[in-house]
């Protein structure tokens, strides 16, 4: 998708990683798990956005061929 979406996903991933690290350092398993979850959700969003971009590029290419 757009650059803004990519930046937002990376920011969410960084926030999750920070929370995960904080949980590890403090021994707070709940914060660690939340951080891991947030980080993985952001990575999944990024992967979905990449897939959408690929499909859009493919369909745009088909339109040009016709």
TrEMBL record:
Domain CsbD-like positions: 5-56
Signal sequence coordinates: none
UniProt xrefs under InterPro entries: CsbD (IPR008462), YjbJ_sf (IPR036629)
UniProt-annotated stretches for the region Disordered: 1-66
SUPFAM superfamilies, alphabetized: Hypothetical protein YjbJ
Biased composition (Basic and acidic residues): 36-66
Family: Belongs to the UPF0337 (CsbD) family.
Name of the protein in its database record: Uncharacterized protein YjbJ (UPF0337 family)
Species the sequence originates in: Nesterenkonia lacusekhoensis
Record lineage: Bacteria, Bacillati, Actinomycetota, Actinomycetes, Micrococcales
């Amino acid at each position: 998708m757009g650059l803004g979406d990519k930046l937002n996903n990376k920011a969410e991933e960084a926030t999750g990683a920070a929370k995960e690290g904080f949980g590890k350092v403090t021994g707070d398993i709940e914060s660690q798990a939340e951080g891991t979850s947030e980080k993985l959700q952001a990575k999944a969003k990024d992967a979905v956005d990449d897939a959408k971009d690929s499909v859009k590029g493919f369909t745009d290419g088909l339109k040009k061929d016709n």
